[in-house]
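Review form for a predicted model. The reviewer records the input and the model, then writes brief findings.
Reviewer: anonymous (R2)
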Amino acid sequence: MLTGKHLPVQGMVLLAALSGGLVLFAGSDATKDKGDKPEKANLAADTEDIDKLVVQLGAASYQEREEAVRRLIAIGPPALGALRRIADDKRADPDVRLRAARAAFAIATVKIEMVRRFGAHTSGPQDPSFRRATRVALSPDGKHAVTTGADNIRYWDLASGKQIRAFGGTAQGYRSVSFAPDGRTIAAGGRRGNVYLFDVHMGKLLQEMKGHTQEVWGVLFTADGKQVVSGSWDRSIRVWDAATGKPVRSFKGVGNPVRCLALSPDGKLLADGHFVANNRQGVVRLWDMEKGTQVRAMKGHEADVTSVAFSADGHFLVSSSFDQTVRIWRVAEGKEVKCLKGHTAHVECAVFTPDGRRVVSCAWDEDPTLRLWDAASGKQLGASEERTEGLLSIAMLPDGRHVLTTGKDGAVRLWRWER
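Model under review:
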């Protein structure tokens, strides 16, 4: 578990998919999810049971040995400590160690399942890039989502899985999207350099902000909703007045194409990810939001940085990259604390779960998987088995067990894991 005071998770907690619709319950803490209740086997388990079953791993009968493995897996996390001790004990019988390791792996591995496929952005069949659902953003109350594509912006109801409306149709499409704190307004970054504000309830264009000259890869609102921050491939970061659409200021010394943005929970720091072509290096930078000046640069990635996201307490930052890695940084020192390796293709996005204990990431093309990681150890906990053409972005739901993704095939998917 990463250190630091974690903020409570507020909002609607998504629990399960039943009868074709999602069941939502109001709650102030994601730990109220019924999935947190231990199974009966866990309640009945105690140290003596576990010790007996560990001894049974070396029984003469094959059936007894396999029964011990099955029962230890059913007990779950309480048995992990004993199993790992046996698996790591070089003095123990090799077969017992192997069975202990197999049981420990089964317990520690989290199954990631696709709950629902919402639909697809499908225009432009002659060009596969036009099918892509490029970005997803979740409303502040956790009830709705917006996705962008080359065709338009789509507004979804998560409880029913139905599209409410599509709007903002353009031949160029959008590279980024973000909700305002009011849950009604969104900002979208266009492929031609403009930033658009829409009312999602009406699908109405409110503002069109012009100034960037190339694709806007990052866009977000400040915490009070009064300003919009945008980052572009034109090597600039700009701040806009959300009410008037007028520019407020530009950041100084950006110097490189901006691929992604994230704002710290306290609103004081802005993170961006970019790529320095001459040095073959991906860099994550932190900026002072008020002054528009760079605080520090964090180096380690060896290719384009594709996403950045803060933990809920603001103490850590996670980044993903074309170098097939996900990295966790301590914000105060700008120090890399973990490098998560396992993806075998470009990693497109990574985010923290609300409690900061886990990281979720997704990748492209040859490795179209969603993966779950333990943030403290850097170990992979699970990976999706559902085949896709490639995943592009992630939005974490408040319960910390569900995420929405967009994909190369234009589809929007809802995923869930058990523990």
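Findings: The first helix runs from residue 40 to 44.
Further findings: Helices lie at 40-44, 47-56, 62-75, 80-88, 94-108.
Recommendation: see findings above.
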